[in-house]
Amino acid sequence: MDFPITQGPDEGDSTINYSVGIELQRFTGSTLIIGDTVFLSDEGVEVLAGTDGSYYAVNAYSFKDADGNEIGGMYARDDAGNNVVGFRVVDEAGNDDDTTLEIASTSTTDATAIVELIANRETEGTDTYIHLERSDSAQEIDLMTPSGGRVRIGRKLQLLGSSAELCDIYIKGTYLIFKYWDATTYRYKYLDLSGIGTTWTHSTTEP
Fold it and tell me: Where are the beta strands (DSSP E) in the chain?
């Protein structure tokens, strides 16, 4: 279904006619109903969320390719005890296309670009969030949790040095392992976390 396009009303005329498919919807007052779930009003675009547990039940915004296949959109669900809004990129046609979801903040060189993903609860003062910042004074990623919180990374954390040196940090079994690419050889430095031992071991093979 194509989004309706029409000219504005004549001066003094409060009625706009929209053609949606073969049906005619009429804008009267402050709300225009497109189909059964999308409402346009002075407050913006309102979409009735789906209730069947499927993202595909109701689309707030849908993006399609030249062949009419969906490539992404914003979806809303009103599940029992759980409100869900999802931004998704899909390959509806099954063309084996790669999919990328980008959330970007772009500023001029005289300003700061920030992206924040925040999870908070009312009346609680400390938020859990991811903060990305690029400015004159900071090029950083902050992963913040309240006291007692944690950041979980699996399976490996890879550190990249300024000259492309690589170091992996990970756990395998009871071992805390540092894996480092040393010119032509992988070197493993590891510590057995079980028991009371404090000795680090070196090897050219993974424990």
Answer: 16-20, 23-27, 31-34, 38-41, 44-47, 59-64, 70-79, 82-89, 113-119, 128-134, 139-144, 156-160, 166-172, 175-182, 185-192, 200-203
